[in-house]
Specification:
The protein is of the alpha/beta class and about 160 residues long. The protein is built from 1 helix and 19 strands. The protein has a single domain, classed as Hexapeptide repeat proteins (UDP N-Acetylglucosamine Acyltransferase, domain 1).
Amino acid sequence: MLGRIKMKIKSMKLKWRVFRMRSKGANIGKGVKIYGKITTYGRLSNLKIGNGCTINNNVSLGVRGGIQIGNDVRISPNVIIISSGLNLNEKPRKHFEAPIVIENNVWIAVGAIISAGVKIGENSVIGAGSVIVKDVPKNSFYGGIPGRLIKSIEN
Protein backbone atom coordinates (compact mmCIF):
# COMPACT_ATOMS: atom_id res chain seq x y z
CA MET A 1 0.00 0.00 0.00
CA LEU A 2 2.75 2.46 0.96
CA GLY A 3 4.60 1.69 -2.28
CA ARG A 4 1.55 2.58 -4.37
CA ILE A 5 1.12 5.85 -2.49
CA LYS A 6 4.77 6.79 -3.12
CA MET A 7 4.38 6.00 -6.83
CA LYS A 8 1.22 8.11 -6.99
CA ILE A 9 2.99 11.06 -5.34
CA LYS A 10 5.95 10.73 -7.74
CA SER A 11 3.57 10.67 -10.72
CA MET A 12 1.78 13.77 -9.44
CA LYS A 13 5.10 15.64 -9.05
CA LEU A 14 6.10 14.78 -12.63
CA LYS A 15 2.76 16.03 -13.96
CA TRP A 16 2.89 19.16 -11.79
CA ARG A 17 6.30 20.22 -13.16
CA VAL A 18 5.08 19.89 -16.75
CA PHE A 19 1.83 21.71 -15.92
CA ARG A 20 3.73 24.64 -14.38
CA MET A 21 5.95 25.04 -17.44
CA ARG A 22 2.95 24.84 -19.79
CA SER A 23 1.12 27.47 -17.74
CA LYS A 24 4.09 29.81 -18.24
CA GLY A 25 3.96 29.40 -22.03
CA ALA A 26 6.11 26.37 -22.85
CA ASN A 27 4.87 24.07 -25.60
CA ILE A 28 5.31 20.56 -24.13
CA GLY A 29 4.18 17.32 -25.77
CA LYS A 30 2.62 14.22 -24.26
CA GLY A 31 4.42 11.85 -21.93
CA VAL A 32 7.18 14.32 -20.97
CA LYS A 33 8.81 13.65 -17.59
CA ILE A 34 10.73 16.27 -15.64
CA TYR A 35 12.62 14.83 -12.67
CA GLY A 36 13.70 17.22 -9.93
CA LYS A 37 14.46 20.91 -10.27
CA ILE A 38 15.23 22.49 -13.62
CA THR A 39 16.10 26.14 -14.16
CA THR A 40 14.88 28.20 -17.09
CA TYR A 41 15.99 31.65 -18.27
CA GLY A 42 13.98 33.74 -20.71
CA ARG A 43 10.39 33.47 -21.93
CA LEU A 44 9.10 29.92 -21.79
CA SER A 45 7.10 30.56 -24.97
CA ASN A 46 10.51 30.09 -26.67
CA LEU A 47 10.64 26.45 -25.49
CA LYS A 48 9.18 23.54 -27.43
CA ILE A 49 9.53 19.95 -26.16
CA GLY A 50 8.23 17.00 -28.18
CA ASN A 51 6.54 13.83 -26.97
CA GLY A 52 8.07 11.23 -24.65
CA CYS A 53 11.07 13.29 -23.50
CA THR A 54 12.84 12.98 -20.16
CA ILE A 55 14.60 15.90 -18.47
CA ASN A 56 16.54 15.09 -15.32
CA ASN A 57 17.50 17.04 -12.21
CA ASN A 58 19.50 20.26 -12.27
CA VAL A 59 19.16 20.98 -15.99
CA SER A 60 19.46 24.64 -17.07
CA LEU A 61 17.60 25.88 -20.14
CA GLY A 62 18.43 29.35 -21.44
CA VAL A 63 15.54 29.85 -23.85
CA ARG A 64 16.07 33.47 -24.96
CA GLY A 65 16.98 32.47 -28.53
CA GLY A 66 14.63 29.51 -28.56
CA ILE A 67 15.07 25.81 -27.84
CA GLN A 68 13.28 23.13 -29.83
CA ILE A 69 13.53 19.58 -28.52
CA GLY A 70 12.21 16.69 -30.64
CA ASN A 71 10.50 13.49 -29.56
CA ASP A 72 12.02 10.84 -27.25
CA VAL A 73 14.99 13.00 -26.21
CA ARG A 74 16.82 12.14 -22.98
CA ILE A 75 18.57 14.92 -21.09
CA SER A 76 20.70 13.74 -18.16
CA PRO A 77 21.38 15.66 -14.92
CA ASN A 78 23.46 18.85 -14.82
CA VAL A 79 23.13 19.63 -18.55
CA ILE A 80 23.21 23.27 -19.68
CA ILE A 81 21.46 24.26 -22.91
CA ILE A 82 21.74 27.99 -23.56
CA SER A 83 20.55 29.77 -26.70
CA SER A 84 22.28 33.09 -26.11
CA GLY A 85 25.79 34.37 -25.55
CA LEU A 86 28.24 37.22 -26.07
CA ASN A 87 29.73 38.21 -29.42
CA LEU A 88 33.48 38.15 -28.85
CA ASN A 89 34.22 40.10 -32.04
CA GLU A 90 32.52 43.32 -30.90
CA LYS A 91 33.63 45.92 -28.39
CA PRO A 92 31.85 46.44 -26.19
CA ARG A 93 30.68 42.85 -26.33
CA LYS A 94 27.00 42.49 -27.08
CA HIS A 95 24.55 39.70 -26.40
CA PHE A 96 23.23 37.57 -29.24
CA GLU A 97 20.55 34.92 -29.47
CA ALA A 98 20.48 31.87 -31.74
CA PRO A 99 18.04 28.96 -31.62
CA ILE A 100 19.04 25.45 -30.59
CA VAL A 101 17.43 22.46 -32.30
CA ILE A 102 17.67 18.97 -30.81
CA GLU A 103 16.12 16.41 -33.14
CA ASN A 104 14.37 13.13 -32.26
CA ASN A 105 15.92 10.30 -30.22
CA VAL A 106 18.94 12.25 -28.93
CA TRP A 107 20.64 11.50 -25.62
CA ILE A 108 22.58 14.29 -23.90
CA ALA A 109 24.69 12.76 -21.11
CA VAL A 110 25.54 14.17 -17.68
CA GLY A 111 27.08 17.65 -17.51
CA ALA A 112 27.13 18.41 -21.23
CA ILE A 113 26.85 22.01 -22.45
CA ILE A 114 25.03 22.90 -25.67
CA SER A 115 25.81 26.37 -27.06
CA ALA A 116 23.64 28.86 -28.96
CA GLY A 117 22.89 28.14 -32.61
CA VAL A 118 23.67 24.41 -32.46
CA LYS A 119 21.62 21.72 -34.19
CA ILE A 120 21.95 18.15 -32.91
CA GLY A 121 20.88 15.61 -35.51
CA GLU A 122 18.49 12.74 -35.00
CA ASN A 123 19.64 9.61 -33.14
CA SER A 124 22.83 11.25 -31.84
CA VAL A 125 24.55 10.98 -28.45
CA ILE A 126 26.42 13.76 -26.66
CA GLY A 127 29.01 12.38 -24.22
CA ALA A 128 29.24 13.30 -20.55
CA GLY A 129 30.91 16.64 -19.86
CA SER A 130 31.10 17.60 -23.55
CA VAL A 131 30.86 21.16 -24.82
CA ILE A 132 29.04 21.35 -28.14
CA VAL A 133 29.69 24.55 -30.10
CA LYS A 134 28.97 23.34 -33.67
CA ASP A 135 26.25 21.31 -35.34
CA VAL A 136 26.19 17.54 -34.75
CA PRO A 137 25.16 15.38 -37.74
CA LYS A 138 22.52 12.70 -37.28
CA ASN A 139 23.61 9.24 -36.07
CA SER A 140 26.75 10.60 -34.38
CA PHE A 141 28.42 10.17 -31.01
CA TYR A 142 30.15 13.45 -30.06
CA GLY A 143 32.29 14.05 -27.01
CA GLY A 144 35.06 16.21 -25.59
CA ILE A 145 35.83 19.90 -25.25
CA PRO A 146 35.08 21.18 -27.79
CA GLY A 147 32.82 18.36 -28.95
CA ARG A 148 34.07 16.29 -31.87
CA LEU A 149 33.00 13.11 -33.63
CA ILE A 150 33.92 10.00 -31.64
CA LYS A 151 32.12 7.56 -33.93
CA SER A 152 29.12 7.16 -36.20
CA ILE A 153 26.10 5.31 -34.84
CA GLU A 154 24.54 2.67 -37.05
CA ASN A 155 20.75 2.44 -37.15
